[in-house]
Design a protein that fits this description.
The complex is a heterodimer. Chain A is mainly beta. Helices cover 10% and strands 49% of the residues of chain A. Chain A contains 1 helix and 24 strands. In chain A, strand 7 and strand 8 form a beta hairpin. The termini of chain A are far apart. By secondary structure, chain B is an alpha+beta fold. Chain B has one domain: Nuclear Transport Factor 2, Chain: A (Roll), CATH 3.10.450. Chain B has a 5-stranded mixed β-sheet with strand order 1-2-3-4-5. Chain B starts with a helix and ends with a strand. Classes of the chains: A mainly beta, B alpha+beta. Chains A and B meet through strand 4, strand 5, strand 7, strand 8 and strand 11 of A and helix 3, strand 2, strand 3, strand 4 and strand 5 of B.
Chain lengths: 298, 177
């Protein structure tokens, strides 16, 4: 073989190697991930897509609040994300890897409110108290995302068909709240929170407050002195609940006798033993009753 | 004899430390990997956050994030028990199980949280927090890193008091506060 033939053969091999290298490089380049273009304004529970550039195949990853998935995709085509994959509000990360990895992030916002979490306190409230009833409402969408877009929650208190309070409150960071006085009448109070066509109802039992005044009467019997109150009411005229304690105190000069008696059907009753002239008084909470003077036993 | 007594005291201390570590909720992470949390409750309303409550929230929030990171790195739902409830618990359990299913795992490194209380219910039964969290997020497919980025994420957090701790009920990332 001549030297010129050898040179030609060598240069042909070099050319081939160069061509193969170029092809490999081109193949490598074409398999590299191009750009990802993410969606904007995605609402929870709706499908969307992410566009890709480049050509060849790549591995696509989606990482979100409750989802971690991967699948093969063709570069240059849109990657569809289903409504089911995007049910949870929050930050999502889309990653595409072909040789190297590139990523984009996007946010999914909550859908419209579909239920209200409504916390009301207390379950029993005395009548005529200031700022004793409070409620907090948190709107959630059907996927349990806290709805953060400001919206108006209407709070309403009703008792026996009459409106006690109506208070619209705008949500701030997904929360609206109210605080109000209790009414004047004992009984069940309906507390309603509503936002658009979604509402939640709670009941607060308004109960009589402390006794407003006490009046006692009594008489001596063969077994001692029987003493009882008149029907006990709070200052709004509501009967004080059964079980409220009234303390009777009897002083006969030498000794003092004390009896705690629960109210039953509006009246507290006690039997006390004292032989001599006796002064009987009654108290419940901070209220004192009248003094009752009973003469000595005959 | 003295040495024997010292050994006994030392052993007792170790036992007490181990028992305490097991009893304190969510102490599954080593101390050096604990997230740094700064808590500000100075502007919260309508109810003020008592100092003891602040300390409890801070403690439980730190443990919660440590456990979250542990769960998502090890693909185990066990660390999520105790400090997450309701929606947050369900979401994180789903996150772990889908990661495991896909062969992925995540690392939340160098966590710094600036936590601010924005709403504390009048009766103290729910608190809303804003967390500006900074951390390095690494995501792996098997042993191959596919993502490594220092991120700042804003979270809306709802916590409620339990019997002996505060639990996270909602942990929702938002673009901004």
């Amino acid at each position: 073989m001549s030297s010129s033939t050898n040179t030609a053969w060598t240069s042909r091999k070099a050319l081939l190697a160069c061509f193969v290298s170029t092809l490999c490089l081109a193949a490598l380049c074409s398999a590299q991930a191009g750009e990802l273009r993410g969606p904007s304004g995605v609402v929870a529970g709706t499908s969307t897509s992410i566009s890709t550039t480049g050509n060849g195949t790549a591995m696509f990853y989606l990482v979100g609040p409750t989802v971690s998935m991967k699948r093969d995709v063709n570069l240059g085509e849109d990657v569809t994300l289903t409504a089911q994959q995007l049910q949870n509000a929050g930050k999502y990360l889309a990653i595409i890897c072909a040789g190297t990895c590139t990523s984009i992030e996007f946010f999914v916002s909550p859908a419209k409110p579909s239920n209200l979490t409504f916390l009301v306190h207390p379950s029993r409230a005395p009548v005529g108290e200031n700022d004793v009833i409070s409620g907090v409402a948190l709107p959630f969408d059907e996927f349990h995302n806290l709805v953060l877009a400001p919206s108006t929650v209407d709070f309403q208190l009703t008792a026996k068909g009459a409106s006690l309070m109506s208070h619209p409150a705008s949500t701030q960071d997904g929360i609206a709240w109210f605080r109000t006085n209790s009414g004047k009448s004992a009984g069940a109070t309906q507390v309603l929170a509503s936002i658009n066509d979604v509402s939640a109802r709670r009941v607060v039992q308004q109960v009589a407050s402390d006794p407003c005044s006490l009046h006692i009467k009594g008489q001596r019997t063969a077994k001692g002195i029987v003493v009882e109150t008149d029907p006990v009411h709070d200052c709004s005229g509501n009967p004080v609940p059964d079980g409220t304690i009234v303390t009777f105190t009897a002083k006969d000069g030498k000794q003092t006798d004390t009896v705690d008696a629960p109210i039953k059907q509006g009246i507290a009753r006690a039997q006390m033993i004292a032989a001599g002239p006796t002064v009987i008084s009654a108290a419940s909470g901070v209220v004192m009753g009248n003094e009752l003077h009973v003469g000595a036993q005959q | 004899m003295k040495l024997f007594r010292f050994q006994r005291v030392g052993r007792a201390k170790v036992i007490v430390a181990v028992v305490l570590a097991l009893l304190i909720p969510g102490t599954s992470m080593a101390a050096d990997s604990m997230p740094a949390v700064v808590f500000n409750a100075s502007t919260v309303g309508p109810r003020a956050v008592e100092s003891l409550t602040q300390r409890s929230i801070l403690r439980d929030y730190r443990f919660a994030w440590a456990n979250l990171a542990h769960a998502l790195e090890s693909n185990s739902t066990a660390p999520l028990n105790g400090l997450f409830a309701g929606t947050a618990s369900a979401w994180l359990n789903d996150a772990v199980s889908t990661q495991r299913h896909s062969g992925l795992h995540s690392r939340y490194l160098n966590q710094n949280h600036k936590l601010e209380a924005v709403f504390y219910a009048p009766e103290g039964d729910v608190i809303e927090l804003h967390d500006t969290a900074e951390y390095t997020l690494q995501i792996f497919d098997g042993s191959q890193a596919i993502h490594d980025q220092h991120v700042v994420v804003h979270y809306i957090v709802l916590m409620t008091p339990g019997a002996d701790r505060w639990v996270i009920r909602q942990l929702q990332a938002v673009p901004r506060f």
